[in-house]
Design brief:
about 240 residues; alpha/beta; 2 domains; four-stranded mixed sheet; 6 helices
Length: about 240
């Protein structure tokens, strides 16, 4: 509410004027929440799609619910914005598209002891994460929050220098490519943006044609890109 006038000349109070910017900000907040919510939504495998790795189910918001219904796991996601249609999933025992784990991120709600038994039987960990990104509880047969296969690959990479460097190159290359896409799509045209795009293109060519042989050299390339990338953002005003 911007302001309530004291009254006009005849002493009749004026009606309050609603803040249109606040209404617009509420709408944009809902749109942003809906976008990120959709990115994290679990989707079943298509009829012609082969999946080697099962995807996790990410839950969040207010009033998350998990319960057993007729031998199946019935999941209701929480509410993060308004208006929002509640998402629901039903998982049957032994189905190949069961989630690899269920992660509850900074949410409130309820589940039953039957759910914990069902998840343990299907070997699906239930991980609760707070708003800081810390795992505060893990339920399941293993009691282990991380994906065992990923953890095993990380341990093996620690003793294999060539493999570790290859993974680092892949991560940094993918990160630099995503930075280029973000600058081109979001940041307004400016000399700083063009210099950043040129630096990114040159760095990608360097990694491809002259791959660095040490992690420190790779970090040097990543640092140059980061400096150019964040410099390009300086001319962008804050948008509320």
């Amino acid at each position: 509410m911007d302001k309530i006038a004291e009254g006009d000349l005849d002493g009749t109070p004026e009606q309050p004027i609603l803040n249109k910017n606040a209404d617009q900000d509420d709408t944009e907040w809902a749109d942003r929440s809906a976008y990120w919510h959709q990115q994290a939504t679990w989707k079943p495998r298509g009829p012609k799609q082969k999946r080697k790795v099962r995807s996790p189910l990410i839950l969040g918001g207010h009033s998350v619910r998990l319960r057993i219904d007729g031998g199946s796991l019935f999941v209701q996601n929480g509410f993060t914005h308004y208006p929002q249609k509640r998402e629901e999933w039903r998982f049957f025992p032994g189905h190949p598209d069961l989630p690899s784990r269920i992660v509850v991120v900074d949410a409130d709600g309820a589940l039953t002891f039957d759910v914990l038994e069902w998840l343990a039987t299907q070997q699906i960990p239930l991980v609760q994460i707070n708003w800081r990104g810390e795992a505060i509880s893990v339920a399941g047969r293993t009691g282990y929050a991380a994906d065992p296969e990923i953890a095993r690959a990380q341990r093996e990479a620690q003793t294999d220098d060539a493999r570790r460097l290859a993974i680092c190159r892949w991560l940094v290359t993918d990160k630099i490519g995503a930075s280029s896409d973000t600058l081109a799509q979001v940041v307004e045209v400016s000399p700083a943006r063009e210099r950043a795009l040129q630096e990114i293109a040159a760095s990608l060519r360097e990694i491809t044609t002259r791959p660095p042989h040490t992690v420190d050299a790779l970090r040097g390339i990543e640092g140059r890109v980061a400096l150019a990338y964040f410099t390009a953002w300086r001319s962008m005003p804050l948008r509320w």
